[in-house]
Amino acid sequence: MRTAALRHTARPGTDELLVRYRLMTRSVRPAIEDVVPVCATTDPEAFFPEASASGLNQVPNRHERIALALCEGCLIVDSCLVGEMREVPSVFQIRGVRAGLRQSERRALYLALEKAGAL
After folding, report:
1. Which parts of 1-119 fold into alpha helices (H)?
2. Of 40, 44, 105, 116, most Cβ neighbours within 10 A?
3. Which residues contact 107 (CB under 8 A, 6 or more apart)?
4. What is the torsional sign of CA 34, 2, 52, 60?
């Protein structure tokens, strides 16, 4: 399952993110070493839009849409999300756009995983 399934016109809710994340962790393969992620060849600032990041129920702002477009088509987007959820020490450390999801979406996912005891 590609993370592209997480992205659609109507942004996914927390429950949907949680279910898809669990499916993703079962199917994610180790990152291919020859693959260079898009974020490694792009200005890092592009992935950290203005501090006024939009919330879960809001449409992504212009800066977020630009960053989300950069993640579109990345070959390791699934392992990127799984890796962040496993490695980030707290919800407050989640910033910007990563793995094709906005900060608010990843924070909601992190809290849902924490509540479910999956972290």
Report:
1. 14-27, 62-71, 77-87, 103-115
2. 105
3. 91, 94
4. positive
